[in-house]
User: Fold this.
Amino acid sequence: KGTEIVYARITNDEKNRYTWYGGIYKLLQAASGMTGAPMAAITREIVTSWNATVGQMVPGYYIRSYEQKPETEIKYTFLDGNMSAEEAKQALVQYAGYSDEDAKKKIDVLSFQKENPLYSEASEASIEKYLEFGTPNKISPDVFMDVWVFEKDTAADRDENGKAINGSKRDKVCDYIDNQDLTQQQKDALYLAFGYSEKNLNDTPWH
Assistant:
């Protein structure tokens, strides 16, 4: 897009609605996406320098940038295959203020999304729980996410006064888990993934 804009400016294409800096900025954004966070930082410096010189002399050429947060830039650079997991982790620590532990968790989530495009829009919470409970117990992402959605969409029954009946939602979720083609250990893992107490496992239908 950036090259199209610059070409249009050079040829004085009347249909072009962009300014010179608009085209250059598009090129810089593309370069940032291809090379990762370090280039994104350089891009910001170039834009700052532009605004401090040309932008000051010609206010109409001042670049008003609404850039994505470093975390978002790193995310899509990694998902597009232009950054390794280790590079992305280091970038999160250096540019987005993550701790080493949180950066590792973030990259683990992104790696799951990269390997399972069907769940690219799944919540981080669901993926983190899958990695914690599903992966070690060899539960497929399809089954885990299906039960996850059911649990989140299910509401507790209510009495005549509109008050939630204690344990009614848990019972529905347990029945749904029990209907899955899983081992007892896998069902236990799903149950615990939703934060239900381990001491009540013996009360579940599969025990």
